[in-house]
Amino acid sequence: MKNHEVRTHKSAEDFPYEEHLAYKVAEVAADPVEVPEETTEMIINRIIDNAAVAMASVARGPVTSARVMAEAHPVDKGGSTIFGIDGTYSAEWAALANGTAVRELDYHDTFLAAEYSHPGDNIPPLLAAAQHKGLSGRDLIRGIATGYEIQVNLVKGICLHEHKIDHVAHLGPSVAAGLGTMLGLDKVTIYQAVGQALHTTTATRQSRKGLISSWKAYAPAFAGKMAIEAVDRTMRGEGAPAPIWEGEDGFIAWMLHSPERTYTVPLPENGEAKTAILDTYTKEHSAEYQAQAPIDMAFALKKTLEDKGLKTADIESIVLHTSHHTHYVIGTGANDPQKMDPSASRETLDHSVMYIFAVALEDGVWDHETSYSPERSNRPETIELWQKISTVEDPEWTRRYHSNDLEEKAFGGKAVITFKDGTVIEDERAVADAHPLGARPFAREQYIAKFKKLADGVVDEAEQERFLTAVQDLENLTDLTELNVRVSDEHLATAPEKPEGIF
User: Fold this and answer.
1) Where are the alpha helices (DSSP H) in 444-499?
2) Residue 425: phi, psi to the nearest 5?
3) pTM, whole model, 2 decimals?
4) Other CB atoms within 10 Å distance of the CB of residue 353
5) What is the spatial distance between Cα 63 and Cα 69, in angstroms, rounded to a whole number?
6) Are the C-beta atoms of 106 and 115 separated by less than 8 Å?
7) DSSP structural state of residue 255
8) 302: closest CA among 358, 384, 383?
9) How many Å apart are CA 151 and CA 274, to the nearest integer?
10) Tens of pLDDT along 33-72?
């Protein structure tokens, strides 16, 4: 890897475009280096993972809206598939529909460093474009490897949330780069596309603050749609604002810290294999990633309390000692009263570690639907326990969160439960059980099990097996429409009726 220093340059400076970060990203995308076998195998895992969570969300309201919008854009030539249904549709609209389905339940892969991300968000737009252009499985693998590589390394080098910019600002450029690899575009075209994609996908992170709405699922899907459109324009010879990151009125100068800040972004050197996907991890539970380890810890603590004859009704307080990011994003440090509100949206509750820990401690299980139902969140004893839970930042957990040593990098914390009689029970967990360093790391078997669990009652068994056979032969696949998963008519009929829009 080579570290690239990225800073603001005045317009009068001599700053050739070959030194722009967008061009360096383009160089990585245009590198014809082969994809390692382990990267390919993990790409297959994540396509399975995306399909799993999409099946679980396919009949939900926001996903239904996105699907109906996309269905209004059918095409006769080429075209892309939409999860759950037959037919071919405009690639950018299929990307929006499928990206929303994947993101709706906050249940797919993650990478956390200086910034946070769900790099599996690269897959829906790349797959849609690949289907439309009639590309092969090997082409798709190359594109996804680049998408992950660029997003993960931008996340390592540039913190967005510090300046209240939504993390999809790293996704637009990564999708554009992945499309460039997949389509075999030249460096200059990819460079322009990366610039356009960043310019059109920058937004504030209010989408993840306060009362969180369904836009949380749409935001990354919209970024993927914008990236497809950016590549289409630049392939036709259109340009982008430049230098997009380093310009005097550019991204760093006005969206991030200031013209004085220098960022360091690592990128593979020419001929270096793309392996960033191997540093990422998926979710066993449908909740914000930093709640994964606390959920597993709550399960263990439930058993501990039962073994000791202790009852949650007798708890005085629960304090979760954790990282800065967990405390301020999904903890009480966010100062969002909505995170303690039983009537809050599902999107808000899955970003409240206080609610999540209370339910996991009481139930000992976590379900993507019932754990968030209004009946569950309004249970009186749960509300009472929930209000007793707080988070505090612990410098050591913050240090471990930001560590570059993957052996000590941690996304968990310590729980201290104090009972009314003075009894104190403690436990801690650095990573979730499903993490590569956890108690039960996810491998192909677990990805398939997750898919079958979430597709149960949604997708016929024969269709499940057809999809799993096709995706596991991705390197030899020539018809990428085989990666679509059709949902049973009975399940699709449960989707809510939506009012008409423009399309």
Assistant:
1) 444-455, 461-471, 489-492
2) -120, 130
3) 0.94
4) 28
5) 10
6) no
7) I
8) 358
9) 12
10) 999 999 999 999 999 999 999 999 999 999 999 999 999 9
